[in-house]
Amino acid sequence: MSRPETGKPPLLDVKDLTVSFGGFAAVKNVSFTLQPGEILGIVGESGSGKSVTCRAVMRLLTGAARAQGTVALDGQDLLALGEEELCAIRGRDIGMIFQNPASHLNPLRRIGQQVAAPMIRHLGIGKREGLLRAVKLLEDVGIHEPEKRARSYPHEFSGGMKQRAMIAAAIGCQPKLLIADEPTTALDVTVQARILELLKELNRKTGLAMILISHDLGVVADICSRVVVMRNGEVVEQGPIDDVINRPRHAYTRLLIESQPGRKSYGSVGSPDRGKSLLRVENLSVTFPAGQGLLGGNSFRALDGVDLEINTGETVGIVGESGSGKSTLARSIIRLNTPSGGAIRLDGQDVGALAGEALTAFRRRVQMVFQNPYDSLNPRLTIAEAVAEPIWRHGIADRKTAREEADALLEMVELPGSLRDRKPQQLSGGQCQRVGLARALALKPQLLIADEITSALDVTTQAQILELLVRLQRQRSLTLLYISHDLAVVSSLCQRVYVFKAGRIVEQGVAQQVLSTPRDPYTQALVGSLARLPTTQTIPLSQGVATHAT
Amino acid sequence: MAESPVLAQTAPSIRRITPTMLVALVVLFGWLALALAAPVIAPCDPDAIDIMNMLSPPSAAHLFGTDQVGRDVFSRVLFASRIDLLLCVAGVLPPLLIGTTIGLLSGYFRGVVDNVFMRIYDLTVAFPFFVLVLAIVGVLGPGLLNFILALTLVGWVSYARLMRAQVLTIRESEYIQAAKCLGYSPAAILGHHVLPNAIGPVIAYAVSDAVLVMLAGASFGFLGLGAQPPAAEWGVMIADGQAFVQQAWWICLFPGLAAISLGLGFALLGDGLGQIHRRGATA
User: Fold this and answer.
1) Which of A19, A96, A420, B231 has its CA 20 to 30 A from that of A365?
2) What are the transmembrane regions (chain B) (predicted)?
3) What integer is the mean pLDDT of B14-32?
4) How far apart are the first and last CA of chain A?
5) How confident is the model at residue A386 (pLDDT cuts 50, 70, 90)?
C-alpha cells in the first residue's frame, strides 16, 4: 500500500462526472482523483452508481447513457476522445477485470491466446512472442505450470484461476491503471483472500494504480489506501481508509460500518446445552450420480458421514464454501434429497420414513428459507397470495382468513401493507427475502432452516434481515439452522457452528471459540480469509495464507 | 382445483394489447366474421357450375372471377374460410392439450414414463413432419377427419417437447423447491406453480402452429388428401387453379392471399401473446 505523494499530478482525475440514462441520473457530480501507484476503493450498495462510474471512465456505457464532466487520464480527457483513440487506450493504458470471470473469457479459445490477445493488439508483437509473454504473466499471477495451463480452456480453470487469468490479460500491456469491478464477489472467501493478496502484491511490485469497486467494506479496507463511499449516485464521503472507518462523518458510512458482519453480536438466545435434542443427523451420506459416461460414471459424494445435532431453541450455524455439502444437508433435512446412508431424526422419528399425515405434520414443523430472493417466489403470484397459500392449502383456515393472516405475517416481517399486491419483480431483494421468511413462518414451524438467505443482499440489507431473524426467533421461540459461507455472519448469530469441507464436518463447537481459536487448518484458513475492518480485533494466524492458486 | 390460473393471468393483461396484437385480432376476427356471414355475403352458390362463364376474369359480376367450371371464386374463398378456420382450431387444440399434459407430467416426474415418451419423441421427429402425416393419412384414407387425426398423432410431440423443456428448468427453481417443502400436493404444484409459468411459449407456439396446420391443410387439399371436392378449401382451390395459372391467375391468387392473411394474423397473435406472457411476471 503506497501512500499518495503530494505534489505529483494525479493519474486519474474525475471531475463532476454525471451519467444519466434518459432522465435518470445514475451518477451525480462525482469527483475523485487517483495518484500513481495508489489503490482507491469505491464502496457502495448495488445501484449506488459505483460500476457506472467506472464504466464511464472506460467509456463502456451503452448508447442510451450520457456522460458529462471530465475524466482525465494523465491530463487527457477520456470523455472527449474518439472511438479509435479510445480503443488504443483501453487495454493498453487501462485494464479492467470484472465480477464474473467466466463470462468474460471466451470458452472456445485457449487461456494463453486470450491473455496474449491484448498484447498482440496493442504492443505490435508477434503471436509467438505474445504467447511467451502470456506464459510469463500466468506465472506472475500465481498459476502453477503456466506452459501447460496456457494451453487449457477456460472450463478447465476454477473460478479463482479464471480471475487470475483475467488479471494476467489485464496487466499484460503494463497499464497505468487497473479497474477491478467486484473482482472477488463470485469467489469463495479463501480464494478471495488469495486474489486480494495477488492484487496487493502487483501494486507493491509494479506500482500499478488500481480502482477497486466493491460492496464489501472489509475487502476495500484490506487493500486500499483511500476510499470513496457512494450512495444513490453521489459520493457521500471520501478519504484515507483509516479516517473513514474510524471517524466516519456521514451517517451512511456509519451504517455501512455497523452492518459489517461480525461487527455486531446478535446475542445468544438461551445458552447452549439447554433444551432437548430436536433434530439429529446420524452418519448421513448423500451420493449423486456424476457423469453419464458409457461405462457408467462414478458417483459424487456430496455428504460423507455427517453427524449433527440441534437442540430446541438453539441457533446452529453451518459454514463452508461452495460445494462443501451444506446446502445438500439442508435439502436432505426437508426431504428434497434422498440420503444414500444414515438417518435424519426429528424427535427421534426417522424423517425419511414419513408419509401421508405424518409427513404433512413434519412439513409444518420444519420450514426453509431459500437463497435466491427472486427465484424463491413464484413470479406470477402477488406476495400476499404467496404467503397465504400454505395456510389454506394446509386447511388451517379458509382462503379469506388466510389472506388476513398473510397480512399479519407481512406486517410481522416489516413489509408495508401497500406492497401486498405486488409481484416479486416489483420488490427489492431484501423485501423478497422478507416475503420468503413470512411464507416459511406461515405454518408456524418449530425448526427454520435458512440457506444463505443473505448472500444475495447488500451488507446493510443483510444486517436488517439478520436483525429481523433474531427478533422472530425470540418471539416465536424458533430453532434455527443458519447456513452460510460467511463465518463472520454465522459467528455473530449462532451459538454453535459446524464447519463443512468436501462433505464432511471438519470442526464443530461454540461459535466464538471456533472463530477465536480454530483448531482445524481449514477453519484457520477460513478465519484468516475474513476481510475485516482494521479496528476489529485481529486474530493471530497460525498459518499464512498461500498466494498460489490451487 | 377451483382456480384457473391461466385465465386469471391472462385476464388483466388484455388491457395491455400492443399494436401488432391489434392488427392480428382485426385480421382474425375479420375472417371469423366473414366465415360466419359467408352465406349472407356470398353473391353466388360456391358450388354452382356455370359452364358458359368459365375462366372469366374479375368483373363486377364476379369480383374475383370464375374458375375452370365457372364457379364464383369470391364465394368459394368466403366459404373455404369456414373449413380453413375450423381446421386451424381442430388441428391445434387436440395436440396442444395432449402434448402439454404429457410434457408437464414427464418433465416434472421424470423417471420411466419420461424415458418412454422421450423415445417416442425421438421416433416421431426422426421422420419429416409431412411424410409422417402423409403416411398416416394414406393408411386411414383421405378426408378432413383423418387428416386432423394424423395431425394430432404427429403434432403433440412438439408441444410435449416444448412443455417438457420449460418444466425441466422451472422444476429446479427455488419456488418449486419451496412449494415441495411447504407440503403442497403435486397437483397443486403442477397446476398452480409450474403450468402458469411454463405455458407462455406453448401458447405462442400453438398460434404459430395454427399457420402450419392451415398450410398443411392447404397442401393436403392440394394433394387431394384433405378436404374433398367439391367442398371449397383454399388449398384445393389453388391446386385446381394451378393448371390454368397462365390464363386465369385469379383462381390461385385470391385463395393464396386469403391463406397468407390468415397465417399472418395467427403469427402476429403468437408474437403478441408471447410478449404479454413475458410481461405477465412483472406486472
Assistant:
1) A420
2) 21-42, 83-108, 144-162, 202-227, 247-269
3) 83
4) 26
5) very high
CA–CA min distance A424, chain B (Å) = 8
How does B111-145 read in b/e, with b if 16+ C-beta sit within 10 Å?
eeebeebeeebeebeeeebeebbbebbeeeebebe
pLDDT score of A533 more than 70: no
Q: What percent of chain B is predicted at pLDDT more than 90?
A: 34
What residues in A contact B173, CB-CB < 8 Å?
A: 375
H or E element that contains A364: helix A356-365
Do residues A452 and A483 lie in contact, with contact meaning Cβ atoms separated by under 8 Å?
A: yes
Q: Is B181 in Cβ contact with A436 (below 8 Å)? A: no
Best residue in B3, B170, B175 for a mutation probing chain A (most A CBs within 10 Å): B175
Asked if A443 and B182 come within 8 Å (Cβ–Cβ), the reply is yes
Residue type, B120: I
Say yes or no for a CB contact (<8 Å) between B181 and A367: yes
Highest mean pLDDT among A430-434, A491-495, B63-67: A430-434
Tell whether B180 lies on the interface with A, counting CB pairs under 8 A.
yes
Cβ-defined contact of B281 to A443 (cutoff 8 Å): no
What ipTM did this prediction achieve? 0.76
Alpha-carbon span B163 to B124, nearest angstrom:
16
Length of chain B: 283
- Over range B158-185, report the average pLDDT: 93
Q: Are A297 and A289 a contacting pair, CB within 8 Å?
A: yes
More confident residue, A364 or B207: A364
**pLDDT over 80 at B234, yes or no:** yes
CA distances from B29 to A70, A428, B36, B73 (A): 58, 42, 10, 22
Query: What is d(CA B106, CA B112) in angstroms, rounded to the nearest whole number?
Result: 9
From the CA of A396, how many Å to the nearest CA of chain B?
Answer: 13
Q: At A425, phi and psi to the nearest 5? A: -65, -15
Nearest to A188 by CA among A505, A544, A522: A522
The nearest alpha carbon in chain B to A355 belongs to: B183
On chain A, the residues whose CB falls within 8 A of the CB of B10 are none
Per-residue pLDDT at A238:
92
